[in-house]
Amino acid sequence: MHRLLRRQLRKHLGVEGEVPAALQSFVAAVDSAYTDFDSDRAMVERSQELSSKELSEAHDKAAQAQTRLTDALETISEGFFLFDASDRMVLCNSRYRELYPGLADLMRLGLEFEHLIKTVVERGIVPDAAARPQEWIEHRLARHRNPGGPFLHHQWDGRWIQISERKTQDGGTVGVFTDVTEIKRREEELAAARDKATEAQRRLVDAIESISEGFSLYDADDRLVIYNRRYRDMHGTGSIDVVKQGVSFEAILRNATASGEIPDAEGRVEAWIAERLARHRDPKGTHIQHRSDGRWIQINERKTDDGGTVATYTDITDVKQAEQAIQESEQRLRVIAEAAPMAVAIVTFDDGIIRYANQRFSEMFELEGSSALGLQAKNFYADPQHRERFIDALTEHGHVESMEMLLKRAGGEEFWALLASQRVQFEGRPAMINGLADISDRKRMEGELHKAIWASEQATRAKSNFVASMSHELRTPLNAIIGYSEILFEDAQSAGRESEMADLRKIQDAGKHLLGLIDNILDLSKIEAGKMTLYLETFELRPMIDSVAATITPLAKKNGNALVVNCADEVGTMHSDLTKVRQTLFNLLSNACKFTRNGTITLTVLRDMDEVVDWVEFQVRDTGIGMTPDQQAKVFEAFTQADASTTRAYGGTGLGLAITKSFCRLMGGDVTLVSEAGKGTTFVVRLPAVTRAASDAAGLAAEKRSERPQVAEPEHAPIVLVVDDDPNARELLRRHLQRGGYTVRLAANGEEAMQLARTLRPDVITLDALMPHMDGWAVLSAMKEDAGLAEIPVIMVTIVDNQGIGFSLGAADYLVKPIDRDRLVRAVDKCCPRGAARQVLIVEDDAPTSELMGRTLRQIDCTVTLAENGRVGLERLKEALPDAILLDLMMPEMDGFEFIARLRADSRWRRIPVIVVTAKTLTAEDRARLNGQVQHLVHKGEYSGKAVLAALDELVPRHARRACADRP
Amino acid sequence: MKTAQYKWSQSDGWRPNLPTGDVGRQSVVFVFGARSLVQAGTLVGELRDHLKGAAMLGCSTSGEIAGDVVVDDSVIATLVDFEHTRLRFASATIGEAKASYDVGKELAQQLNDASLRHVFVLSDGLHVNGSDLAHGLAGGVSEGVSITGGLSGDGTNFAETWVIADGGAGPQRVATVGLYGDDLRIGYGSMGGWQPFGPLRTITRAEGNILYELDGGSALDLYKSYLGPHADQLPSSALLFPILVTEAKGGQGVVRTVLSVDEQNKSMTFAGDIPQGGTAQLMKTNVDDLVDGATAAAKASLSGLGDRRPDLAILVSCVGRKLVMKQRTEEEIEAIRDVFGRDTKISGFYSYGELSPFMHGGECRLHNQTMTITTFAED
């Protein structure tokens, strides 16, 4: 029984085992039906299985066919795709995938064509689509659905793809994709090559057109093939229109001769044509053709390989004309030379023989007629060296503009001539044309002039020296006159003797005026003698201006004037000569005060940077009497005031402005003025913010150029030991000193210097401050400690500003005689403040001066000790230590310089402030001497040979007289 | 190992009556019942009350198996009291299918230790990616630990599936029991009985467990053409024609059935992953083939037990088989009974997916359309 029936019987009827008899036939029928159904189903499944198997086989075959198709599609070099009727991808080959690597992720069965095309646009695979993407997509889809002929896509990577689509029978679409980039490229290359060929042809035509000659090419049949415009233009009106491609050479000739363009052919036309044709067919180099319009044409014909004739035509009319011109100009030259006021001769180079000489030449050398021709030129030189120098110069430069030389006339008389010469070609040979002028008279006059100038210079120098020494002599008595009149005035004042006071004041004023005059004369004489030097230092402008203003204020008030100062606090610093800047401003301001009453004096300070120089500008404006243009013109001259009458009205020496101008120029600037009579005057001083001392290097270079023979070292000359690590500096000093008559020894470092100093015992040592290992200061200390060397004077040569060091060792201040009472008091106050007991030592040989100072100091509660020279001064120091010392420099027995050196050598006295009292304005050298134990401090940047010599001349007589004894 | 089985039906109530009093400490009640009964909770509550001390593990089904009978609209409770084997339970809620792998691994790691022998798992049948879950579980246990189980069913409704665990019953849950100890013997076998037919088709578009296109055409359209008039009853009618899925690189194919269809996207969602680029082939079967399959699965499940007869066999059979066999469904159970004999306690359910290694071992995989048997014995 069927299993299902048995279970159903059990489940639904509770029948287990035997089926009840009543149901047996029914159950048998159902059982049969179940079994039959199973059997039928088995049959159905069987047949289904078989069909499935067959289907599977058919499928396999189809798959196989598809594989073959796919394989076949893979082998073709074109890309291939197939989309079905609903535009889904059925297949594509790998070549197609390769053509579109950017779409690799999309490539699968079922891909919608529209999606594919949209992605192509999105990813920029066909850049042409970017402009109007939507339109492009629609166009592409339309083409896909209804394909036409093949079309091209230019891909983003530069490739060109040719696409060919076709509908299949079932409504699908096949596409074939061919990479035609290479074909496209070749097409482009071909087009480019065509362009190039066209371009080359055009260039050839351009080239032929652009050559300066006429050009023609006739073929083997003598027909014109190529020609340029110049060739055509060469022809006259009768033949020019015939010239065109294809015309025969003979036809052109016949037209030209017929219209008379060829003068040579006149009267023999046929013969000329025959000759010309023969030459054309068998060319023999160049020939020249004369045309009736006056032109000369040089024709150069040549056969070409293919039997044609190529020719160039050069217009040589200019050359022909130039030849003619040369002939004419030579003739003219001869005429001119004959007429010239100078002697002219042409001499051929190789043999030195005169080939031409004018009349004036014969006269100059006292020759008869034209007998100069054929003579040797060298016979006319008085000095063979002169001739040599001239020939050298001519050879080197090709010409000599003017050279003075000593020549000789035929009769043997020598004379000076000025020679000018030029190399030329004479009759095809290298030659020179010489022009000569007799300058004997001028030479004589020059000699006389030189003598006169020398004498004048001597006189000026003598005058300056005289004035300088006289001034010194004048100042000393003035000191007494002013000082004592001052004291007497004070006495009279305290005693109330009015009448005496007025007289004493007059004495005092007259003395001061005379002193001002002398100072100015001294300055002026220094300037004239070229001895005025600059003491350069860096200083703040503002404090200087304040101090000047403070000083000038009382003077301004005297005439009821207001002083206005316009100066910025941050106006900065200046590197210049402070004293001279101050003096310049004093001069201008005191002038302004003098010539202005109840007005305003304005001092304005500006900085002005131009392209090169940082300028400091001082303007002094007054509202005074002003000047006329005439007065303005003379105001800076010495001993001049605007009007002689002003001297009487306003006083003054008339030297101030001349000195001011000289100072300004010395400092690299100038002073100018703007003025109007009756309205006031403005003086403008422009000075460089940094003044540079005149470089000595230029001087050295100049000496080198002049190549003066070296001065031999004289026997027994004083010995100078030069210590410097820089060989150039050593050499420079050596040369200066040797010329000055010294024996010079050199040391390159401190150790060597010490050794040489001990063995040589030089008279003077110059010492560089900055050296490796042992610097100048160390050497100096070592020498001062060595008993054998301590006395040898040392000149420090340095580029370092050692004023700092110097100041700690040296003078605290200095005073100039005659002593200004106020300054003296201020100087002492500065050294030792008031309040405590103050003791001052005055070392001074001039009794009136020391007495005068003593009285003044006692008035301000100082205890005063006197010493008449340095030696006595030292004695006094041993007795009691003063708080300050007033020191004169020039004294017998022991002068101020030596005194201060001793003072500084002793540790007990080193700190005592010293105020120098001197009858002369201190020079930079003087200041340096006072600034320490060194005798001189010379700045390398500013020293000159003269300065060093001057320093030595001052030193050596004092310290090395023994060695100098035999000096001339 | 002691076993007792209690059946509840509308007509008879519990048969036999539920006992009272404590049961052994290492005992578990496997509960399989209709989704409406499980969801109602009354019967599960009664089981908890009566079988105190026993842990509970179960799910909703598409048909319950007890002995050699297949019933619907009932609850089958099988109490298993292990003599030597120790038990540990772990369960979790699964938020979305994507988390399947992580949940599987997490649960397995909770259970894993050196003495773990076997993991039996019951999972939600609709919101879980069974392939990922199996893969996750396998990744969380030591080598040599076997994993079997199934995805809960919901008749042929495909609406909601429930899982019962100690933490409570509910949808979107996964519950596991780990079995420990050297005295435990486990066998398993899984076999379908389906034959592929028709052309081999290329999976041209698929994402995860969603299939869109076969051979460049709509998969759903193709499928419907096979179902003919049955297409109206999708997705349940799709169970009649599962597909055999093979990966592009080859290897053993797996049978996959449709869980749901999306008319909008023309897509079909499967219980496991569909590999794009692989191949798919429709399958068919008949009652005899399915019964032969069940027999083969039962024989295979014995091999793990050595010379022992199983004390307990849990059968997880696909709902698709039941749809094909209809009144003759019990024939496959009878065939299994014939293999095991009368002494083996048989329980189980018709499912939305089976979990087991292939017949020859290897990692636990998701199967469809199979009879999957796990056998238990204690030395």
UniProtKB/TrEMBL annotation, chain B:
Domain named FIST C-domain: residues: 219-358
Span of domain FIST: 25-218
Matches recorded under Pfam families: FIST, FIST_C
InterPro entries per the UniProt record, alphabetical: FIST_C, FIST_domain_N
Protein name: Histidine kinase
PANTHER family: BLR0328 PROTEIN
Organism of this sequence: Bradyrhizobium niftali
